[in-house]
């Protein structure tokens, strides 16, 4: 329908150009105006013509065509969507569980080493640890809330399709989990340098809180994907809940 309207507009303006008769200069001007109107209308209507317009128009049209082609080639059926979701969810859960295991392993190692370690105070290390924990903790929370906002998920789905949306959910969850895991690693380093196992224990508690906060939930991923696929709204009633 959009193509018919665009072509109809172009034909009507070209017909007006023919009415100029012998006035060739006026006909040329009218034809150029018709071409510009046609390209503008076609672009606004969602119809892409990569070969029309000026060099800038052609470049913009090619970019728009690439976006639309990317969307159309990434609109999988329900079975392939569920398969991709399960694959990405499984790999994400593996990463998060691995970081939980690493956290518990570091706690066990530091506690065993701390029994024979010589304790020594270091105010600069203590202050640096506190600042690092606060920054990493807030960054993890802010990153998750920003990347999982409904508007951003809708934009990702519009530009990259459902596969791109699932990739974004996986990538963000892994990034938040890595930030949480880094807290325990920093605490373990400070414990080795000072001999106090309390740095690792406190860091591990914060890390586990972050990992539980960002732990992926398959049902939430399914609600987001289904909501965007069906209604185009990541905040639709069928998608309520946390994305991770």
Q: Which features characterize this protein?
A:
elongated; 244 residues; single chain; 0% strand
Overview of this protein structure:
There is one protein chain. This protein has 244 residues and is mostly helical. It folds into 2 domains: 2-73, no CATH class; 78-239. The protein has 8 helices and no strands. The protein has helices at residues 2-18, 24-45, 55-73, 78-114, 123-147, 150-194, 198-214, 218-231. Helix 3 packs across helix 6 (150-194), helix 4 (78-114) packs antiparallel against helix 7 (198-214) and helix 5 (123-147) packs parallel to helix 7 (198-214). The longest helix has 45 residues, at 150-194.
Kindly name the structural category.
Answer: mainly alpha
Give the biggest beta sheet: none
Beta-strand residue percentage? under 5%
Total of DSSP H or I helical runs spanning 4+ residues: 8
**Portion of residues in helices?**
over 70%
Count of the domains: 2
Tell me how many strands there are. 0
Task: Give me the Rg, rounded.
Answer: 28 Å
| Mean pLDDT value | 75
Spatial shape: elongated
Strand/helix succession: HHHHHHHH
Terminal residue distance: 40 Å
Low-confidence stretches: 1-7, 16-24, 41-52, 65-75, 233-241
